[in-house]
């Protein structure tokens, strides 16, 4: 008895489609222009970083020679040790500020976005409008009222003060992110949970929050980056004992005593920017997924 082996059919592209694909693979003037623009943009942003990195490994004698783009003839890590000794206190202050200033706004924003998307309390649209308007109020407008209120409360210049300020300014954008994300979730899922007897907190903790990992990563990246890179709020509200890394970096770079140590300044700047850069590199995939899943949907 003979057996016939069926071979899978290989799709054959029409001749016109093959010609079109071949034309796409060729470098047209427009494609060359796009590549040239992308390369120029990447070079524009990477060149300062390159200069900072190589300068941080040079001695001051080599820096005084004036060849900015040359690689260091003798690599030294002494500028990095010096920079870390000057900004390490600010680093841990920034960590102490960034952790609660990220967790609390994300948690409150998730609850607000969940309530505004599914439960629709009375005046929900008005409340959302007020929160959204808060995202567009300049920080400088609110500094004096906040200073006055915190001074009256006796917490000005403390760690709780700077954390509370970041929570206040982070709430609008966090609520907007989570509301738009939950608005893209099928409403039938919420209705099914309600039929099963789920209440406000049970549905939030057992249904919505486990689905929110992509948008939580997006919110965490945005909040950590904003808090870590902040200068003016940390300068005004944190006080000398809780000054974040950006404030101490400014003190290092703008010192008016002695010789200006460019290698130490560059190393301190890279140390200050290392945390946001590491977060972006590690969580980039989740950031894109969260954006695509509804972070910017209306």
UniProtKB/TrEMBL annotation:
<keyword id="KW-0472">Membrane</keyword>
<feature type="domain" description="ABC transmembrane type-1">
    <location>
        <begin position="91"/>
        <end position="283"/>
    </location>
</feature>
<feature type="transmembrane region" description="Helical">
    <location>
        <begin position="91"/>
        <end position="114"/>
    </location>
</feature>
<keyword id="KW-0813">Transport</keyword>
<keyword id="KW-0812">Transmembrane</keyword>
<keyword id="KW-1133">Transmembrane helix</keyword>
<feature type="transmembrane region" description="Helical">
    <location>
        <begin position="126"/>
        <end position="147"/>
    </location>
</feature>
<protein>
    <submittedName>
        <fullName>Sugar ABC transporter permease</fullName>
    </submittedName>
</protein>
<feature type="transmembrane region" description="Helical">
    <location>
        <begin position="199"/>
        <end position="222"/>
    </location>
</feature>
<feature type="transmembrane region" description="Helical">
    <location>
        <begin position="261"/>
        <end position="282"/>
    </location>
</feature>
<comment type="similarity">
    <text>Belongs to the binding-protein-dependent transport system permease family.</text>
</comment>
<dbReference type="Pfam" id="PF00528">
    <property type="entry name" value="BPD_transp_1"/>
</dbReference>
<feature type="transmembrane region" description="Helical">
    <location>
        <begin position="32"/>
        <end position="53"/>
    </location>
</feature>
<dbReference type="InterPro" id="IPR000515">
    <property type="entry name" value="MetI-like"/>
</dbReference>
<feature type="transmembrane region" description="Helical">
    <location>
        <begin position="153"/>
        <end position="178"/>
    </location>
</feature>
<dbReference type="InterPro" id="IPR035906">
    <property type="entry name" value="MetI-like_sf"/>
</dbReference>
């Amino acid at each position: 008895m003979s057996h016939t082996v069926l071979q899978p059919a290989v799709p054959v592209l029409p001749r016109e489609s093959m010609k079109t694909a071949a034309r796409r693979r060729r470098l047209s003037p427009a494609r060359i222009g796009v590549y040239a623009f992308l390369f120029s943009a990447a070079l524009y942003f990477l060149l300062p970083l390159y200069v900072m990195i190589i300068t941080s490994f040079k001695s001051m004698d080599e820096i005084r020679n004036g060849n900015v783009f040359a690689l260091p003839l003798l690599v030294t890590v002494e500028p990095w040790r010096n920079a870390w000794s000057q900004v390490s206190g600010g680093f841990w202050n920034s960590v102490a500020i960034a952790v609660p200033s990220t967790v609390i706004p994300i948690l409150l924003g998730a609850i607000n976005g969940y309530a505004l998307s599914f439960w629709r309390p009375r005046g929900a649209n008005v409340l959302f409008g007020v929160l959204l308007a808060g995202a567009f109020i300049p920080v400088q407008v609110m500094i004096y009222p906040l200073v006055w209120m915190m001074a009256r409360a006796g917490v000005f210049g403390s760690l709780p003060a700077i954390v509370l300020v970041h929570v206040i300014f982070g709430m609008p954008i966090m609520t907007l992110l989570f509301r738009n994300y939950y608005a893209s979730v099928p409403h039938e899922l919420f209705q099914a949970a309600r039929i099963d007897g789920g209440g406000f907190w049970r549905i939030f903790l057992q249904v919505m929050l486990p689905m929110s990992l992509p948008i939580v990563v997006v919110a965490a990246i945005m909040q950590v980056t904003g808090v870590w890179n902040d200068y003016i709020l940390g300068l005004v509200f944190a006080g000398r004992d809780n000054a974040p890394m950006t404030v101490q970096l400014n003190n290092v770079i703008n010192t008016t005593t002695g010789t200006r140590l460019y290698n130490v300044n560059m190393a301190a700047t890279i140390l200050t920017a290392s945390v946001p850069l590491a977060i972006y590199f590690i969580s980039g995939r989740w950031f894109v997924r969260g954006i695509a899943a509804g972070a910017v949907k209306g």
